[in-house]
Amino acid sequence: MAIMIPDVIPTHQSEEIIFNNLKHAAQAREWIVLHSINVENSNHPERPREIDFVILIPQYCSVICLDAKAGGYDLRGGQWYSSYATEPLEIPPPARALSAMYDLGIQFSTYFSTHPALSIGCAVAFTDAKEPDSSPTHQAKLIWADDARDPNRLSKEIEEHAKALSNDIQVAQQKNLDKLRSELENNMTLEPIKRPETIIRSDLATLRPHLLRLTTDQLNSLKRVKLNPRCKIDGAAGTGKTVLAMELARRRCEEEGETVALLCSNPNLSDRFDKWTKTLSTASGGKVVAGTPATLPNWAFREASDLRGKHHRRLKDSPELEGSLKFRYLESQWKQFIDETVEDLKQVGEGVFDYLIVDEAQNMCDKVFLELMKALLKDGLANGRWTMFGDFKYQNIVSPDFHKKAEEVLEDFGLNWANDELETNCRNTHEIASAVAKFVGIGSPPISGVHGPLVQLEYFKYQDKLEDVLDRLVNSLKEREFGSQQIILLSSDADNEFSKRTYGGWELKNIGQTKIKKHKGKGIEPHLVPAGPDNMLRYSNIYDFQGLESEVAILVMPVTDNQTILGDSVTLPEYPHLRRILYIGMSRAKAMLIIVADEGYKDFLEPPGL
N or C: which end of the chain has fewer CB within 10 A? Predict the structure, then answer.
């Protein structure tokens, strides 16, 4: 689909038709479509001029201003009439579109210090009017109902217009197109809200369409991947690695007809992937199979009942490997589990997947897991086609201390690849991304222009008072109409210990909990417990929630085993561990973050004098 900004619009007849058709047009996938852009009216400065859609087409470095028109129109003697009207229109639709285009062109001078070097054109899409027998030539492209109501025909008409307008594509043009998008988007976002405790549900609803969409550097990464059979894409938390991994998997499946393995370390993320794969088209013969190192081989053994049975028994005998990627088992249970699995995969054949995509790959840059990837992928890792997405730059924050850096492990495995980097935070609001950079002490990637509430800090003095603080916060969110599925309660403690009482009347549901479920005719395999109904409040430790996100996150930072209490003071965890807590936990919040911490953290979170 095209990148729609926002991704939902009010019902508005013709505009809704055009919006939906552009959103689902196959050849518009890399277009950026902005709805309802106001530009200064050069004739009447007191009345801004609205452009229904501003379409940025990177392929041709072109900008198309598109107006959508409902109802009937007639052309009589070279003049425009509304259907059944006896008098001609004072300003015909093509003239309105041209005026808006010229005004946007004038506004370009406020975005660029030099000539923009962008091709700009305009079009009018008539969702009801049929093309007349004869029509005079206009500078504006006219798209009549038969084309406007068909996604592929509409996008083809717009693309042909953009292509006819475009000059030779230059680097300067592409940079200016990126800058124009940024300027237009920033005009749409909200000002910072200073009091998070006053935010109601509808406030965050206005932010949702602006977060988690494909950014320019994500689109550029897709181009890099297309040109290189093996890629490693690095990105800090919030830069959209998971979104990009899913888009790449979709393209390999739907457009290339390939069988794609989508591998991740977190079973909760795998469950999300698995549900999403069921929405993909398999008309081209492609397929996406999602799983963890424990579960992904199930599909490879699908036609070998004896090997499938052996693998199910391995899973049953190693329940500690089902819940999450337990690094402390790396040299014991995991190694034995994968060694046996790889031996069985050799009986299936030389790899079963055409393409391998690994998300949160920094967690699996170890020879043990690379051996499994090699066995699953056609032509292996050295010669096969794969892309790994990971936070390799800050892996010492989010992963255990491997004896080598990820790049060294891959090199020792005899691999070569192209590198790329995601640099724009597209998940978190400006306020959350800034707070992560401040507390963790890392260089922050460019931050989204989307503003939201400031990070809310709450403290408790004694452990038994934590329950009261959480109960109060959850009740407050409920009163402001937030639903339980919008909120995640995160613990900084790996043991994930919360009281079994309810908060705000909502019963707690551990998203990391697993159970063994028997499937008819398929033996035994791990299965995630469902998230639960709307009256269940989700909770997790930060490690089981890695790779996931929630609109609202409450991060709880109690005193843990690696801290001591001396009198009334708390010794903080060693800095690397504290960075891990903050980096993973804080970045899970998309729009609103509340940190609930022992008072011993106060001087760290709010240094005196600041």
Answer: C
Question: How many residues would you count in the chain?
Answer: 610
Q: Phi/psi at 540 (nearest 5 deg)?
A: -165, 160
H/E segment holding residue 460: strand 456-460
Which regions in the chain score pLDDT beneath 70?
Answer: 1, 10-12, 45-47, 109-117, 134-138, 166-179, 181-195, 205-214, 322-332, 395-404, 441-449, 493-500, 512-534, 559-577, 608-610
Contact residues for 328 (Cβ-Cβ < 8 A; gap 6+):
none
Beta bridge partners of 517: 525
pLDDT of residue 477: 94
Residue of 39, 44, 46 whose CA lies nearest to 110: 39
Q: Cα 307–309–314 angle (5° rounding)?
A: 95
CATH class of 213-422: alpha beta
pLDDT digits (tens, 9 = 90+) for 135-180: 666 678 999 999 999 999 999 999 999 888 765 445 456 666 666 7
Cα distance between residue 581 and residue 166, in whole Å: 49
493 exposed, middle or buried (CB, 10 Å; 0-12, 13-18, 19+)? middle
Give the per-residue pLDDT at 124.
Answer: 94
CA distances to 8, 93, 199, 541, 592 from 553, rounded to whole Å, are 24, 48, 14, 12, 7
Residue 167 has φ and ψ, to the nearest 5°, of -95, -170
Question: What fold characterizes domain 430-605?
Answer: Rossmann fold (3.40.50)
* DSSP letters for 23-57: HH-GGGTT-EEEEEEEE--SS-TTSPEEEEEEEEE
Q: Which two tokens stand for residue 298?
A: 């199930």
pLDDT recorded at residue 499: 63
As a whole number of angstroms, the distance between CA 358 and CA 370 comes to 11
Report the C-alpha gap between 354 and 302 in whole angstroms: 17
Strand extents, DSSP E, 166-296: 230-235, 259-263, 287-291
The distance in angstroms from the start CA to the end CA of the chain is 46
pLDDT at 605: 82
Give how far Cα 61 sits from Cα of 22, 107, 112, 141, 152, Å.
18, 17, 15, 18, 20
3-class secondary-structure state, position 288: strand
How much is the pLDDT for 193?
52
With 0-12 / 13-18 / 19 or more C-beta atoms within 10 angstroms meaning exposed / middle / buried, residue 218 is buried
Report how far apart, in Å, the C-alpha atoms of 205 and of each of 10, 365, 482, 588 are. 13, 38, 11, 17
- For residues 190, 191, 196, 201, the Cα torsion angle rounded to the nearest 10 degrees is -20
Please say whether the beta carbons of 322 and 270 come within 8 A: no
Both structure tokens of 489: 């309660």
Q: What is the pTM of this model?
A: 0.66
Task: Give the pLDDT of residue 377.
Answer: 96
